[in-house]
Amino acid sequence: MDSPFLLGLGLALVAILARRRL
């Protein structure tokens, strides 16, 4: 499971969560 698409999606989710936490 080494897909750039999934990686980008995960990164976006993490960024959104981090922004919501701040």
Task: Provide a descriptive summary of the structure in words.
It is a single chain. This protein is an all-alpha fold and 22 residues long. Helix content is 82%, strand content 0%. It is built from 1 helix and no strands. The longest helix has 18 residues, at 4-21. The termini are far apart.
Question: What is the element layout, followed by pairings?
Answer:
Elements: H1 4-21
N- to C-terminal distance:
31 Å
- Parts with pLDDT < 50 across at least 5 consecutive residues: none
What is the 3D shape? rod-shaped
Largest sheet: none
Order of helices and strands: H
Q: What's the alpha carbon Rg, rounded to whole Å?
A: 10 Å
Enumerate how many helices there are, as a single number. 1
- Helical fraction equals over 70%
Query: What is the structural class?
Result: mainly alpha
- Share of β-strand residues: under 5%
Mean pLDDT: 90
List how many beta strands DSSP finds. 0
